[in-house]
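Lecture notes, unit on protein representations.

Consider one protein chain, 462 amino acids long.
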Amino acid sequence: MKDDAKQSINDALKDNEDINTPQIANEHSFLSNKDHSSCINNTTLFHTILPNNFNIRDKQQLDLEIIAAMKSKIYDNKPIQVINGIVHVQVPSKEGGNDLLPIIPSDPETCQLVFNICHTQSGHFGLEKSLEFLKTYGYLKKSRKIFEQFYKECITCAEVNSPLQKHCEMKTVQYSRPFENLAVDICGPIQPASQRGNKFIIIFIDSMTRFTMAYPIKKYDYEHVIECLQDLVFTHGAPVSIRCDNAPNFKSHSWKDALDVVNINLQHSTEYHSRGNSLAERALRNLQDGLKKLIKEDVLNWDKYVKPLCYFYNINICKSTNTSPYFLHYLRQPYTDLNKLLQTDVKYKVDINRPLSEIVQYAKKAYETANAVILRSSEARKALVNPKYILEQSHFKEGDKVYAKLPDFSRGRKLAKKWKGPYTIEKMEDAVAFITLDNSPKKKIRKLHIDKLKKFRSNKEE
Protein backbone atom coordinates (compact mmCIF):
# COMPACT_ATOMS: atom_id res chain seq x y z
CA MET A 1 0.00 0.00 0.00
CA LYS A 2 1.43 3.35 -0.99
CA ASP A 3 1.96 6.05 1.66
CA ASP A 4 -0.32 8.54 -0.10
CA ALA A 5 -3.10 5.96 -0.12
CA LYS A 6 -2.93 5.69 3.65
CA GLN A 7 -3.68 9.35 4.29
CA SER A 8 -7.02 10.00 5.97
CA ILE A 9 -9.54 11.73 3.74
CA ASN A 10 -10.04 14.28 6.51
CA ASP A 11 -6.60 15.66 5.75
CA ALA A 12 -7.39 16.01 2.07
CA LEU A 13 -10.98 17.27 2.00
CA LYS A 14 -11.45 20.91 2.85
CA ASP A 15 -14.61 22.86 2.07
CA ASN A 16 -15.60 20.70 -0.93
CA GLU A 17 -12.34 21.39 -2.79
CA ASP A 18 -11.72 19.14 -5.76
CA ILE A 19 -9.32 16.26 -5.19
CA ASN A 20 -7.48 14.80 -8.17
CA THR A 21 -6.79 11.08 -7.97
CA PRO A 22 -4.78 8.81 -10.26
CA GLN A 23 -6.35 6.09 -12.42
CA ILE A 24 -5.45 2.42 -12.01
CA ALA A 25 -5.95 -0.63 -14.21
CA ASN A 26 -9.48 -1.97 -14.50
CA GLU A 27 -9.58 -5.63 -13.40
CA HIS A 28 -13.14 -5.98 -14.67
CA SER A 29 -12.31 -5.03 -18.24
CA PHE A 30 -9.24 -7.32 -18.31
CA LEU A 31 -11.60 -10.19 -19.08
CA SER A 32 -12.57 -8.71 -22.44
CA ASN A 33 -9.19 -7.30 -23.46
CA LYS A 34 -8.19 -8.40 -26.97
CA ASP A 35 -4.74 -9.30 -25.68
CA HIS A 36 -6.39 -12.00 -23.57
CA SER A 37 -8.63 -13.50 -26.22
CA SER A 38 -7.64 -16.98 -25.10
CA CYS A 39 -9.84 -16.39 -22.04
CA ILE A 40 -12.96 -14.88 -23.64
CA ASN A 41 -13.35 -14.38 -27.39
CA ASN A 42 -15.67 -11.91 -29.10
CA THR A 43 -18.04 -11.45 -26.19
CA THR A 44 -19.32 -8.57 -24.13
CA LEU A 45 -20.90 -10.77 -21.49
CA PHE A 46 -18.25 -9.82 -18.94
CA HIS A 47 -17.70 -6.18 -19.76
CA THR A 48 -20.23 -3.39 -20.02
CA ILE A 49 -19.89 -1.21 -23.10
CA LEU A 50 -20.03 2.20 -21.47
CA PRO A 51 -21.52 4.98 -23.61
CA ASN A 52 -18.84 7.30 -24.97
CA ASN A 53 -20.89 10.35 -24.09
CA PHE A 54 -21.65 9.28 -20.50
CA ASN A 55 -20.23 11.61 -17.87
CA ILE A 56 -21.23 11.31 -14.25
CA ARG A 57 -20.66 15.03 -13.60
CA ASP A 58 -22.96 16.04 -16.46
CA LYS A 59 -25.61 13.56 -15.33
CA GLN A 60 -25.53 14.88 -11.78
CA GLN A 61 -25.95 18.46 -13.00
CA LEU A 62 -29.24 17.43 -14.68
CA ASP A 63 -30.65 15.73 -11.57
CA LEU A 64 -32.94 18.14 -9.69
CA GLU A 65 -32.48 16.41 -6.31
CA ILE A 66 -28.70 16.55 -6.60
CA ILE A 67 -28.88 20.23 -7.64
CA ALA A 68 -30.97 20.94 -4.54
CA ALA A 69 -28.51 18.98 -2.40
CA MET A 70 -25.64 21.17 -3.62
CA LYS A 71 -27.37 24.13 -2.00
CA SER A 72 -28.53 22.44 1.20
CA LYS A 73 -25.42 20.23 1.58
CA ILE A 74 -27.83 17.36 2.37
CA TYR A 75 -28.95 14.49 0.11
CA ASP A 76 -31.48 11.91 1.29
CA ASN A 77 -30.88 13.14 4.88
CA LYS A 78 -27.13 12.58 4.55
CA PRO A 79 -24.27 15.12 4.28
CA ILE A 80 -22.52 15.57 0.93
CA GLN A 81 -19.08 16.57 -0.33
CA VAL A 82 -17.71 17.29 -3.79
CA ILE A 83 -14.67 15.36 -5.02
CA ASN A 84 -13.26 15.85 -8.52
CA GLY A 85 -16.42 17.77 -9.33
CA ILE A 86 -18.56 14.74 -8.45
CA VAL A 87 -21.10 14.96 -5.62
CA HIS A 88 -20.57 12.30 -2.94
CA VAL A 89 -22.80 11.36 -0.04
CA GLN A 90 -21.50 10.31 3.37
CA VAL A 91 -22.73 6.90 4.58
CA PRO A 92 -21.73 4.61 7.48
CA SER A 93 -19.01 2.11 6.60
CA LYS A 94 -19.00 -1.58 7.49
CA GLU A 95 -15.32 -1.18 8.30
CA GLY A 96 -15.88 1.64 10.77
CA GLY A 97 -16.13 5.38 10.24
CA ASN A 98 -17.86 6.66 7.12
CA ASP A 99 -17.53 6.29 3.36
CA LEU A 100 -18.02 8.94 0.69
CA LEU A 101 -19.84 7.36 -2.23
CA PRO A 102 -20.68 9.12 -5.52
CA ILE A 103 -24.39 9.84 -5.92
CA ILE A 104 -25.89 8.03 -8.88
CA PRO A 105 -28.51 10.10 -10.74
CA SER A 106 -31.92 8.45 -10.78
CA ASP A 107 -32.77 8.94 -14.46
CA PRO A 108 -33.86 5.69 -16.21
CA GLU A 109 -30.86 5.51 -18.56
CA THR A 110 -28.31 5.73 -15.74
CA CYS A 111 -30.24 3.31 -13.52
CA GLN A 112 -30.43 0.74 -16.33
CA LEU A 113 -26.71 1.11 -17.03
CA VAL A 114 -25.81 0.66 -13.35
CA PHE A 115 -28.07 -2.40 -13.04
CA ASN A 116 -26.40 -3.92 -16.10
CA ILE A 117 -23.00 -3.54 -14.45
CA CYS A 118 -24.13 -4.85 -11.04
CA HIS A 119 -26.25 -7.73 -12.33
CA THR A 120 -26.38 -8.52 -16.04
CA GLN A 121 -22.63 -8.15 -16.64
CA SER A 122 -21.60 -9.59 -13.26
CA GLY A 123 -22.84 -13.16 -13.44
CA HIS A 124 -26.63 -12.69 -13.03
CA PHE A 125 -26.50 -13.30 -9.28
CA GLY A 126 -29.52 -12.58 -7.08
CA LEU A 127 -31.13 -9.27 -6.19
CA GLU A 128 -29.42 -8.96 -2.80
CA LYS A 129 -25.95 -9.55 -4.25
CA SER A 130 -26.60 -6.98 -6.99
CA LEU A 131 -27.69 -4.40 -4.40
CA GLU A 132 -24.69 -5.04 -2.17
CA PHE A 133 -22.39 -4.78 -5.18
CA LEU A 134 -23.91 -1.37 -5.93
CA LYS A 135 -23.57 -0.14 -2.32
CA THR A 136 -19.85 -0.90 -2.37
CA TYR A 137 -19.18 1.66 -5.09
CA GLY A 138 -22.03 4.17 -5.31
CA TYR A 139 -25.22 5.54 -3.74
CA LEU A 140 -28.54 5.27 -5.57
CA LYS A 141 -31.64 6.61 -3.85
CA LYS A 142 -34.45 4.03 -3.65
CA SER A 143 -32.04 1.49 -5.09
CA ARG A 144 -34.03 -1.55 -3.89
CA LYS A 145 -37.24 -0.43 -5.58
CA ILE A 146 -35.38 0.37 -8.82
CA PHE A 147 -33.36 -2.86 -8.88
CA GLU A 148 -36.37 -5.00 -7.96
CA GLN A 149 -38.18 -3.83 -11.08
CA PHE A 150 -35.18 -4.52 -13.34
CA TYR A 151 -34.63 -7.90 -11.64
CA LYS A 152 -38.24 -8.95 -12.26
CA GLU A 153 -37.76 -8.14 -15.94
CA CYS A 154 -34.56 -10.23 -16.25
CA ILE A 155 -35.66 -13.09 -18.53
CA THR A 156 -32.34 -14.90 -18.15
CA CYS A 157 -32.81 -15.23 -14.38
CA ALA A 158 -36.49 -16.14 -14.70
CA GLU A 159 -35.61 -19.07 -16.97
CA VAL A 160 -33.00 -20.52 -14.58
CA ASN A 161 -33.68 -19.54 -10.95
CA SER A 162 -35.71 -21.83 -8.66
CA PRO A 163 -37.62 -20.82 -5.51
CA LEU A 164 -35.82 -21.26 -2.20
CA GLN A 165 -36.44 -24.47 -0.28
CA LYS A 166 -36.29 -25.10 3.45
CA HIS A 167 -34.11 -27.82 4.92
CA CYS A 168 -33.69 -29.60 8.20
CA GLU A 169 -31.50 -28.21 10.96
CA MET A 170 -27.76 -28.55 10.37
CA LYS A 171 -24.74 -28.09 12.62
CA THR A 172 -22.49 -25.13 11.79
CA VAL A 173 -18.71 -25.56 11.73
CA GLN A 174 -16.89 -22.30 12.48
CA TYR A 175 -13.51 -21.38 10.96
CA SER A 176 -11.56 -18.36 12.15
CA ARG A 177 -9.21 -17.55 9.25
CA PRO A 178 -8.87 -17.89 5.46
CA PHE A 179 -7.71 -21.25 4.09
CA GLU A 180 -8.27 -23.00 7.40
CA ASN A 181 -10.55 -25.31 5.45
CA LEU A 182 -11.51 -25.73 1.79
CA ALA A 183 -14.59 -27.63 0.67
CA VAL A 184 -14.13 -29.47 -2.64
CA ASP A 185 -16.53 -31.17 -5.04
CA ILE A 186 -16.74 -32.22 -8.68
CA CYS A 187 -19.54 -31.70 -11.21
CA GLY A 188 -19.96 -33.79 -14.35
CA PRO A 189 -19.78 -35.27 -16.82
CA ILE A 190 -21.11 -32.17 -18.58
CA GLN A 191 -22.74 -32.69 -21.96
CA PRO A 192 -21.63 -31.64 -24.44
CA ALA A 193 -17.91 -31.68 -23.75
CA SER A 194 -16.18 -28.40 -24.54
CA GLN A 195 -14.09 -27.85 -27.66
CA ARG A 196 -11.02 -28.39 -25.49
CA GLY A 197 -12.38 -31.74 -24.31
CA ASN A 198 -13.33 -30.69 -20.76
CA LYS A 199 -16.19 -32.67 -19.23
CA PHE A 200 -15.94 -31.94 -15.49
CA ILE A 201 -15.55 -29.00 -13.11
CA ILE A 202 -13.70 -29.31 -9.81
CA ILE A 203 -14.49 -26.54 -7.36
CA PHE A 204 -12.81 -25.38 -4.15
CA ILE A 205 -14.45 -22.94 -1.72
CA ASP A 206 -12.92 -21.39 1.38
CA SER A 207 -15.17 -22.30 4.30
CA MET A 208 -14.47 -19.01 6.08
CA THR A 209 -14.27 -16.36 3.33
CA ARG A 210 -16.39 -18.23 0.71
CA PHE A 211 -13.66 -17.44 -1.85
CA THR A 212 -14.30 -19.79 -4.79
CA MET A 213 -11.84 -21.36 -7.24
CA ALA A 214 -12.89 -23.73 -10.05
CA TYR A 215 -11.10 -25.67 -12.77
CA PRO A 216 -12.52 -27.33 -15.91
CA ILE A 217 -10.92 -30.77 -16.41
CA LYS A 218 -11.06 -33.46 -19.07
CA LYS A 219 -11.20 -36.52 -16.82
CA TYR A 220 -12.33 -37.17 -13.28
CA ASP A 221 -9.21 -38.99 -12.18
CA TYR A 222 -6.34 -38.63 -9.78
CA GLU A 223 -3.93 -36.97 -12.22
CA HIS A 224 -6.32 -34.18 -13.23
CA VAL A 225 -7.48 -33.53 -9.67
CA ILE A 226 -3.90 -33.32 -8.41
CA GLU A 227 -2.99 -30.92 -11.23
CA CYS A 228 -5.74 -28.57 -10.05
CA LEU A 229 -4.65 -28.94 -6.43
CA GLN A 230 -1.06 -28.04 -7.35
CA ASP A 231 -2.21 -24.91 -9.20
CA LEU A 232 -4.27 -23.88 -6.18
CA VAL A 233 -1.45 -24.43 -3.70
CA PHE A 234 1.19 -22.67 -5.82
CA THR A 235 -1.16 -19.71 -6.40
CA HIS A 236 -2.84 -19.25 -3.01
CA GLY A 237 -0.88 -21.46 -0.60
CA ALA A 238 -1.90 -24.72 1.04
CA PRO A 239 -5.04 -24.90 3.20
CA VAL A 240 -4.93 -26.49 6.66
CA SER A 241 -7.61 -29.01 5.70
CA ILE A 242 -9.82 -30.08 2.81
CA ARG A 243 -13.35 -31.42 3.16
CA CYS A 244 -14.84 -33.58 0.41
CA ASP A 245 -17.53 -36.17 -0.15
CA ASN A 246 -17.08 -39.93 -0.36
CA ALA A 247 -16.51 -40.21 -4.11
CA PRO A 248 -13.96 -42.96 -4.97
CA ASN A 249 -11.24 -40.58 -6.19
CA PHE A 250 -11.49 -38.59 -2.95
CA LYS A 251 -11.05 -41.78 -0.87
CA SER A 252 -8.12 -43.20 -2.81
CA HIS A 253 -4.70 -43.67 -1.22
CA SER A 254 -3.16 -41.52 -3.97
CA TRP A 255 -5.39 -38.56 -3.02
CA LYS A 256 -4.53 -38.95 0.67
CA ASP A 257 -0.82 -39.26 -0.11
CA ALA A 258 -0.89 -36.12 -2.26
CA LEU A 259 -2.46 -34.12 0.58
CA ASP A 260 0.03 -35.52 3.07
CA VAL A 261 2.92 -34.20 0.97
CA VAL A 262 1.78 -30.61 1.60
CA ASN A 263 0.51 -31.36 5.13
CA ILE A 264 -3.19 -30.89 4.30
CA ASN A 265 -5.61 -32.73 6.58
CA LEU A 266 -8.35 -34.69 4.80
CA GLN A 267 -11.96 -34.67 6.04
CA HIS A 268 -14.91 -36.55 4.57
CA SER A 269 -18.61 -35.69 4.84
CA THR A 270 -21.05 -38.34 6.03
CA GLU A 271 -21.69 -41.09 3.50
CA TYR A 272 -24.77 -40.55 1.31
CA HIS A 273 -25.33 -37.11 2.80
CA SER A 274 -24.34 -34.42 0.29
CA ARG A 275 -25.49 -31.61 2.56
CA GLY A 276 -22.61 -32.53 4.84
CA ASN A 277 -20.48 -30.80 2.20
CA SER A 278 -23.08 -28.11 1.57
CA LEU A 279 -20.68 -25.24 0.84
CA ALA A 280 -19.22 -27.03 -2.17
CA GLU A 281 -22.67 -28.25 -3.26
CA ARG A 282 -24.02 -24.70 -3.14
CA ALA A 283 -20.99 -23.30 -4.97
CA LEU A 284 -21.45 -25.87 -7.74
CA ARG A 285 -25.12 -24.98 -8.03
CA ASN A 286 -24.27 -21.27 -8.33
CA LEU A 287 -21.70 -22.10 -10.99
CA GLN A 288 -24.10 -24.31 -12.93
CA ASP A 289 -26.84 -21.67 -12.82
CA GLY A 290 -24.35 -19.04 -13.99
CA LEU A 291 -23.25 -21.19 -16.91
CA LYS A 292 -26.87 -21.73 -17.94
CA LYS A 293 -27.40 -17.99 -17.99
CA LEU A 294 -24.24 -16.98 -19.79
CA ILE A 295 -23.30 -19.60 -22.36
CA LYS A 296 -26.34 -18.87 -24.57
CA GLU A 297 -25.38 -20.16 -28.03
CA ASP A 298 -21.72 -20.64 -27.13
CA VAL A 299 -22.33 -24.07 -25.57
CA LEU A 300 -19.11 -25.71 -26.74
CA ASN A 301 -17.06 -23.01 -25.00
CA TRP A 302 -18.71 -23.37 -21.58
CA ASP A 303 -15.33 -23.98 -19.91
CA LYS A 304 -14.17 -20.45 -20.81
CA TYR A 305 -16.85 -19.03 -18.54
CA VAL A 306 -15.89 -20.97 -15.39
CA LYS A 307 -13.13 -18.71 -14.05
CA PRO A 308 -14.91 -15.42 -14.93
CA LEU A 309 -18.00 -16.69 -13.08
CA CYS A 310 -15.87 -17.46 -10.03
CA TYR A 311 -14.44 -13.95 -10.23
CA PHE A 312 -17.88 -12.36 -10.35
CA TYR A 313 -19.08 -14.53 -7.48
CA ASN A 314 -16.04 -13.51 -5.42
CA ILE A 315 -16.48 -9.75 -5.95
CA ASN A 316 -20.18 -9.85 -5.01
CA ILE A 317 -21.27 -9.52 -1.39
CA CYS A 318 -21.85 -12.86 0.34
CA LYS A 319 -24.85 -12.83 2.66
CA SER A 320 -23.18 -15.27 5.05
CA THR A 321 -20.28 -12.89 5.76
CA ASN A 322 -21.84 -9.53 4.80
CA THR A 323 -18.82 -8.75 2.63
CA SER A 324 -17.29 -10.06 -0.57
CA PRO A 325 -15.09 -13.18 -0.67
CA TYR A 326 -12.64 -11.12 -2.74
CA PHE A 327 -12.23 -8.56 0.06
CA LEU A 328 -11.71 -11.18 2.79
CA HIS A 329 -9.20 -12.99 0.60
CA TYR A 330 -7.16 -9.97 -0.59
CA LEU A 331 -8.15 -7.33 2.01
CA ARG A 332 -8.99 -4.87 -0.75
CA GLN A 333 -11.88 -4.19 -3.10
CA PRO A 334 -11.55 -4.94 -6.84
CA TYR A 335 -11.54 -2.18 -9.44
CA THR A 336 -14.71 -2.61 -11.52
CA ASP A 337 -16.73 -0.91 -14.24
CA LEU A 338 -18.65 0.98 -11.54
CA ASN A 339 -15.39 2.68 -10.55
CA LYS A 340 -14.91 3.67 -14.19
CA LEU A 341 -18.52 4.81 -14.62
CA LEU A 342 -18.54 6.85 -11.40
CA GLN A 343 -14.92 8.02 -11.86
CA THR A 344 -13.70 6.76 -8.50
CA ASP A 345 -10.61 4.71 -7.68
CA VAL A 346 -11.43 3.65 -4.13
CA LYS A 347 -14.00 4.45 -1.46
CA TYR A 348 -12.95 7.64 0.30
CA LYS A 349 -12.65 7.25 4.07
CA VAL A 350 -13.91 10.18 6.12
CA ASP A 351 -12.82 9.51 9.67
CA ILE A 352 -10.66 6.40 9.68
CA ASN A 353 -6.95 6.10 8.99
CA ARG A 354 -5.51 2.66 8.38
CA PRO A 355 -1.68 2.77 8.03
CA LEU A 356 0.19 -0.22 6.71
CA SER A 357 1.55 -1.04 10.16
CA GLU A 358 -2.01 -1.78 11.32
CA ILE A 359 -2.92 -4.11 8.44
CA VAL A 360 -2.65 -7.20 10.65
CA GLN A 361 -5.10 -5.80 13.18
CA TYR A 362 -7.33 -4.70 10.31
CA ALA A 363 -7.34 -8.24 8.90
CA LYS A 364 -8.09 -9.70 12.32
CA LYS A 365 -11.04 -7.35 12.75
CA ALA A 366 -12.36 -8.17 9.27
CA TYR A 367 -12.20 -11.92 9.94
CA GLU A 368 -13.80 -11.60 13.37
CA THR A 369 -16.62 -9.51 11.91
CA ALA A 370 -17.18 -12.01 9.11
CA ASN A 371 -17.29 -14.90 11.59
CA ALA A 372 -19.81 -13.06 13.74
CA VAL A 373 -22.04 -12.52 10.69
CA ILE A 374 -21.71 -16.20 9.72
CA LEU A 375 -22.86 -17.22 13.20
CA ARG A 376 -25.83 -14.82 13.12
CA SER A 377 -26.78 -16.04 9.64
CA SER A 378 -26.66 -19.62 10.83
CA GLU A 379 -28.98 -18.84 13.74
CA ALA A 380 -31.33 -16.95 11.43
CA ARG A 381 -31.54 -19.91 9.03
CA LYS A 382 -32.62 -22.18 11.86
CA ALA A 383 -35.72 -20.02 12.32
CA LEU A 384 -36.73 -20.75 8.71
CA VAL A 385 -36.88 -24.50 9.26
CA ASN A 386 -40.36 -25.88 9.87
CA PRO A 387 -40.22 -27.67 13.28
CA LYS A 388 -42.40 -30.43 11.82
CA TYR A 389 -39.56 -31.43 9.49
CA ILE A 390 -36.70 -31.37 12.00
CA LEU A 391 -35.52 -34.93 12.55
CA GLU A 392 -34.32 -35.25 16.14
CA GLN A 393 -31.30 -37.47 16.80
CA SER A 394 -33.21 -39.12 19.64
CA HIS A 395 -35.64 -40.52 17.05
CA PHE A 396 -33.17 -43.37 16.44
CA LYS A 397 -31.26 -45.44 19.00
CA GLU A 398 -28.98 -48.46 19.13
CA GLY A 399 -30.81 -51.70 18.27
CA ASP A 400 -33.55 -50.05 16.18
CA LYS A 401 -34.68 -51.70 12.95
CA VAL A 402 -34.60 -49.23 10.05
CA TYR A 403 -34.88 -48.85 6.31
CA ALA A 404 -31.96 -47.10 4.57
CA LYS A 405 -32.37 -44.87 1.54
CA LEU A 406 -30.08 -46.80 -0.81
CA PRO A 407 -31.87 -46.90 -4.17
CA ASP A 408 -31.63 -50.03 -6.30
CA PHE A 409 -31.29 -48.91 -9.93
CA SER A 410 -31.16 -52.41 -11.41
CA ARG A 411 -34.71 -51.85 -12.71
CA GLY A 412 -33.95 -48.34 -13.95
CA ARG A 413 -34.41 -45.00 -12.19
CA LYS A 414 -38.16 -44.72 -12.81
CA LEU A 415 -38.94 -48.11 -11.21
CA ALA A 416 -36.15 -48.13 -8.62
CA LYS A 417 -36.88 -49.09 -5.04
CA LYS A 418 -35.67 -46.21 -2.89
CA TRP A 419 -35.46 -47.97 0.47
CA LYS A 420 -33.56 -51.10 1.47
CA GLY A 421 -33.72 -53.13 4.66
CA PRO A 422 -34.29 -53.94 7.34
CA TYR A 423 -31.02 -52.81 8.87
CA THR A 424 -30.08 -52.81 12.55
CA ILE A 425 -28.45 -49.79 14.16
CA GLU A 426 -25.30 -51.07 15.86
CA LYS A 427 -24.06 -47.71 17.13
CA MET A 428 -24.96 -44.00 17.07
CA GLU A 429 -22.50 -41.10 16.91
CA ASP A 430 -24.32 -37.78 16.90
CA ALA A 431 -26.43 -37.86 13.70
CA VAL A 432 -24.53 -40.75 12.14
CA ALA A 433 -25.80 -44.33 12.40
CA PHE A 434 -23.63 -47.45 12.01
CA ILE A 435 -25.91 -50.06 10.47
CA THR A 436 -25.76 -53.70 9.32
CA LEU A 437 -28.10 -55.47 6.89
CA ASP A 438 -30.12 -58.13 8.77
CA ASN A 439 -30.21 -60.80 6.05
CA SER A 440 -26.54 -60.45 5.10
CA PRO A 441 -24.11 -63.08 6.45
CA LYS A 442 -21.14 -60.67 6.20
CA LYS A 443 -22.67 -58.11 8.57
CA LYS A 444 -20.73 -55.30 6.91
CA ILE A 445 -21.05 -52.03 8.83
CA ARG A 446 -21.80 -48.87 6.88
CA LYS A 447 -22.32 -45.28 8.03
CA LEU A 448 -25.36 -43.22 7.10
CA HIS A 449 -26.74 -39.89 8.23
CA ILE A 450 -30.11 -40.21 9.98
CA ASP A 451 -31.66 -38.14 7.17
CA LYS A 452 -31.31 -41.31 5.07
CA LEU A 453 -33.10 -43.59 7.57
CA LYS A 454 -36.70 -44.35 8.46
CA LYS A 455 -38.19 -46.68 11.07
CA PHE A 456 -38.82 -50.26 9.98
CA ARG A 457 -42.36 -51.51 10.52
CA SER A 458 -43.10 -55.22 10.37
CA ASN A 459 -46.44 -56.53 9.14
CA LYS A 460 -47.41 -57.32 12.74
CA GLU A 461 -46.71 -53.75 13.84
CA GLU A 462 -48.74 -52.36 10.94
